[in-house]
Amino acid sequence: MSPANPDLQLRLHGERSEIAIVTLNRPTKRNALNDGLIIALRDVFQTLPDTVRAAVVHGNGEHFSAGLDLSELSERDAAEGVFHSRMWHHALDCIEKGKVPVVAALHGAVVGGGLELASACHIRVADESAFYALPEGTRGIFVGGGGSVRVPKLIGAARMSDMMLTGRVYNAQDGERIGLSQYVVPEGTALDKAIELATRIATNARMTNFALMHALPRIAEQPADHGFLTEAMMAAIAQSAPEAKARVRAFLEGKAAKVSKT
């Protein structure tokens, strides 16, 4: 299975092809995002093989993604601009609200639309070369790929405003400190760490992963009494699955590993 667009690559990893590794493949353009690449991402995540239980997104070359390819930016009227932005929203929703958890392996530039893409993933692993910026504010434009919704959920509206108003750039360590990534690893090892995490995630029960992807973000935004009810219903559904019952039984019979220090 290979995407029609050569700017995006897909390969399956693992003994049962349970990990999808999705690679942005425009290294000479610093993996800048254009509409063709965004549509290819949408199509890949809508049609992942049934064997896949987790995915990894990373960039070929020296950068994850330097953002929107401004050389392909065309003039649009207001209506066309709205429809174009909504196309990006739908594509990145296919990652955030898709079939499987997605880990982003970040290195080099994670800028503008590249940060919007990374923020649609569920876990972000950055190596020490990664840096983050939202230069749209200094270029007379505004984020249009969902960044104004997703990035403040990671770092808060005030920090995002600072990035856009002043052009502030965060390095890998400070990015992890404020919430742009959950892990920082030595330079050149982000993909290996992302695959390691995806492999671990792939062993989870499907319904647990579904709940974490689809229910938890909604619970976090609900009033407390609504959240408690949603949680109760999701917990009941998850634990009723045969896979969950087998896992609990294995733990009670001493056949499953206990949590310990790592």
Describe this structure in words.
This protein has helices spanning 35-46, 78-96, 113-120, 147-155, 157-166, 172-178, 190-201, 206-221, 224-240, 242-252, and strands at residues 8-13, 19-24, 54-59, 102-106, 109-111, 123-127, 131-133, 170-171, 183-185. The protein has 262 residues and is α/β, with parallel strands linked by helices. The protein has two domains: 8-201, 2-enoyl-CoA Hydratase, Chain A, domain 1 (Alpha-Beta Complex), CATH 3.90.226; 206-252, Orthogonal Bundle (Lyase 2-enoyl-coa Hydratase, Chain  A, domain 2), CATH 1.10.12. The strands form two sheets. The protein has a six-stranded mixed β-sheet, with helices on both faces. It has a three-stranded mixed β-sheet with strand order 5-7-8. Helix 2 (78-96) links the parallel strand 3 and strand 4 (102-106). The longest helix is centred in the first third of the chain and has 19 residues, at 78-96. The chain is globular. 38% of the residues are buried. The mean pLDDT is 93.
What features would you highlight for this structure?
2 domains; 2-enoyl-CoA Hydratase, Chain A, domain 1; 262 residues; 3-stranded mixed beta sheet; Lyase 2-enoyl-coa Hydratase, Chain  A, domain 2; 9 strands; 10 helices; globular; alpha/beta
Mean of residue pLDDT values: 93
Instruction: Please report the total strand number as a whole number.
Output: 9
Approximate helicity band: 40-55%
For this structure, the CATH topology of the largest domain is 2-enoyl-CoA Hydratase, Chain A, domain 1
Q: What ranges have pLDDT less than 50 throughout 5 or more consecutive residues?
A: none
Which structural category fits the helices and strands?
A: alpha/beta
